[in-house]
Fold this protein.
Amino acid sequence: MKRWLVIPLLFSSTFCLFSEEKVNEAKKFINEAEERLEKKWIEAERINWIYQTYITYDTSLIASNVNEELSNLTMALIKDSTKFTNVIKDPVTDRKFKLLQVSVNLATPSDSSKSSRLAKVATEMESIYSTGKACVDGKCYSLDEAIKILADSKDYKLALKLWKGWRDAVGPKIKPLYSEYVSLSNQGAREIGFADVGELWRSRFDMPSERFLEVVDALWQEVKPLYESLHCYVRGRLSDYYGDDLVPKSGYIPAHILGNMWAQDWSNIYQIIAPPEFRRKMVSIKESLNKKGVDEKGMVKYAENFFVSLGFEPLPDSFWERSMFKRPRDREVVCHASAWNIDMKDDLRIKMCISITDEDFKVIHHELGHNFYQRAYKDQPPLFRAGAHTGFHEAIGDTIVLSITPSYLKEIGLIEDIPEGWDLPFLLQLALEKVVFLPFGYLIDKWRWEVFSGKISEEKFNERWWELRKELQGIAPPVERTEKDFDPGAKYHIPANVPYIRYFLAHILQFQFHKALCDLAGFKGPLHECSIYKSRKAGEKFIEMMQKGASAPWMDTLAVLTGAREMSAKPLLIYFSPLKKWLDSENKKYGYKCGW
Ligand code: ASP
Ligand code: SER
Ligand code: ZN
């Protein structure tokens, strides 16, 4: 029976069509689309795994081929799906259509020579980045080696050579490819109705793209005063350490002396900026790991154990057999840490070049957070097998990291004693990681959104990059930069086409999650003292939230765990409030003039 009903909608001038037949057609379309996509995703995951763990001419070629096929398929399905735009669907089908619209990773143009070129350019940028070597005085280092030296170096000149060496190695080679990638992927984005790739990326958050910009900026404004206090204190202490001529007490901090290749995490300079009585009270996970002879795999076991203590099933044997934990000696790989679910069911893996450091101990928890999330939502239909939004995905493992307190470390036998008065030293160290990250996490995509929209042209790529680094982070390049340099290209996610605002959101959300989980665990006391280790109650709710995947708008999913429907910086601010007080009084004591 054919039943047509035409319902004029109040809020729209168009007519929406409702008929059983049309709805069934739409359902059939989306189910078949999911089936085809799932097949291609799995094939692409396998090939990309091989490529990323063994970069050669051939593996690059087959990876770029399959990535192109996947993109072309997704683009075609998106275009086809518009024929159902005006059909009123049931909520599940409707959500699937919405997710499909924004699901393409690399928006390939329909012209086949352009789409294959774009796929090649993307693979090539990632290969250049991953095989790049920072050369210093005739000796060349892989990125992970350079990172380690930089983390430990308090030598202004050596740090500068490494900083510049890495940027020289990859930036100029990536720049022309990046311009091509911007123009080609923008063409693709326009073919599916977006103004540019930035708008496509921002449309993945269950709200209009313009509203999303406001939400993000409001969160940044809320945390900015905390960042400014920390910046002020660190600049002052660094100035005392290096001298006024190298680090003036006003203005920007040189970007290379913050213990990290991108100045996105300053926890490695803790020992030079913290007061002496703080330094003695610092807990070093690295020292404990070394003392106990824990190797890379052992570090992963600690992380798995935490999740298991909350009620998650242990990782499958195949995880231990198929993951990559160490940089192989004899071949090039993509070392940047990542987590995979190759068959979208149980074939979980991580790929990392683990260093035995505090930082990597935490990154391992971060990666396993992805794996446990992937497994939690594996029974959802394919289009819902994703985070509630990408920031959720990045926040799961980091939430666990917030539970790595001294008492937790003692409980698992990694440290013997908890130093008396550990709170402020601990908070300072963690702020150098979490608070410091916030402006960085914001500016990467702020820059990219402007690039994709055409607001900044190729001749201003690097200039604008440094304007934002100055304005938001209060840091400056230690040597002159020109448009021959392409410093954005020296940060993985830019050549690798991975959106970054997810990490900013995750840094807000993880404190919201932590607060909610600590409440569930029945913890009373200051938030930074809480560890949810072994709390089945917290675990149960966490898992319940994770199982939802992307099946509902993220606001609903957030409410499952926290009761709130908005992202909020309040828990972060509460968490660090004792430190904020301390920083403000130190800055006053030293007479530092804050700001830049
Ligand atoms: N830990 C890495 C980073 O966040 C990779 C990841 O997202 O898993 O970039
Ligand atoms: N893992 C992300 C990065 O390395 C965010 O911390 O940049
Ligand atoms: Zn991640």
About this structure: The radius of gyration is 24 Å. Residues 1-15 have pLDDT under 50 and may be disordered.
